[in-house]
Amino acid sequence: MIPFVRDMAFEYGRPDAVSPLIRRVVANNPGPFTYLGTGTYIVGQGEVAVIDPGPALDLHLDAILEATAGERISHILITHTHQDHAPLAYPLKACTGAMIYGLEEPRHQADEGEDDSGLGADDTRRFRPDVMIADGQTVSGPGWTLEAILTPGHASNHVAYALREENALFCGDHIMGWSTTVISPPDGDMTQYYASLDRVQARGFDTLWPTHGPPITDVAPFVEAYRNHRLARERQILAELREGGGTIAEMTPRLYRGVDKRLHAAAARSVLAHLIHLVRIGQVHCEGTPNLNSHFKLISNSMI
Ligand SMILES: [Zn+2]
Q: Under a CB-based contact definition with an 8 Å cutoff, are residues 209 and 250 in contact?
């Protein structure tokens, strides 16, 4: 079982000091994927970085500007380009002159528009930061240093940012305290996701600050449980295939019994992500490129 953490004291638009170097302002965009809303982080004092400005909401822009009144925003950092994280970066840059750091929106995400996971771009204009950040690259201000850690999986362009002074990680949607994260192919990739979980675990952070919901403070057991949850899902999928259920449409309602039906379309994409991984590692077979309509078969010597 994942030891989820869900309680968080906040008011929309109100900046809360949540650690010596970190303030958080929550945007009023609650929903099945965003939980209470997007948590925008302000790092430092006087000269600050803003992480994940959030969705294009005027009230949230005002809240960030009010929270940083009398200070200078020197960096805008994006964990990934989903609509609940990045769009406000442009107006925030226009108001402050700060440069935007992150990775650009992949072409297929922009071209496809909003997919049925609810996480895709709804705009044909591709998001491009001013600075394409590299793994290990740091940006800093007075008393703070942020290091980029590439963490593809939830999104191919996902970047987490380590705050060295507090041994903490702004982990975006890679790891969330309130829920598992959606891995939606083709941009989401389960094989990469496992590797990115390992990267975070290896660093031994004291605190994870997801963009949605409260921080995770018991990091190692949480990440371990998060990983085990995925492995358990894989075993369930293999068991479904052993029973003969060979399509995602057949498997998803059984695998996600008791889960909010609004999430089933996204869940189906997670099942596809698992199956792509299982095909890649030689445990499952399907004709052609795996997709939502493929028929999957267990390779007979697969371990369950
Ligand atoms: Zn996301």
A: no
Q: Which two tokens stand for residue 49?
A: 């970085």
**Is 148 within 8 Å of 79 (Cβ atoms)?**
no
Q: Determine whether 279 is exposed, middle or buried from the number of CB atoms within 10 Å of its CB (0-12, 13-18, 19+).
A: middle
In contact, 157 and 102? CB cutoff 8 Å: yes
Report the DSSP pairing between strands 99-102 and 168-172.
Answer: unpaired
pLDDT category of residue 134 using cuts at 50, 70 and 90: very high
Residues 275, 286: Cα–Cα separation, whole Å: 9
Quick count: other Cβ atoms within 10 Å of Cβ 135? 11
60-64 LR contacts (CB < 8 Å, sep 24+): 60/13, 60/25, 60/27, 60/28, 60/29, 60/88, 61/88, 61/91, 61/92, 61/95, 62/13, 63/12, 63/13, 63/14, 63/15, 63/25, 63/27, 64/25, 64/40, 64/88, 64/92
Query: Ligand 1 centre from 299 Cα, in Å?
Result: 33
Query: pLDDT per residue over 19-43, tens digit each?
Result: 999 999 999 999 988 999 999 999 9
For residue 80, how far is its CA from the centre of ligand 1 (angstroms)?
7
Q: Residue 220: its pLDDT value, please?
A: 98
Q: What residues flank ion ligand 1 with Cβ within 5 A?
A: 82, 173
Residue 287 C-alpha to ligand 1 middle, in angstroms?
30
pLDDT tens, position by position, 278-298:
999 999 999 999 999 999 999
Note whether 169 and 207 are within 8 A (CB): yes
CA of 171 to the centre of ligand 1 (A): 11
Question: Are 40 and 49 a contacting pair, CB within 8 Å?
Answer: no
Active site residues: 84
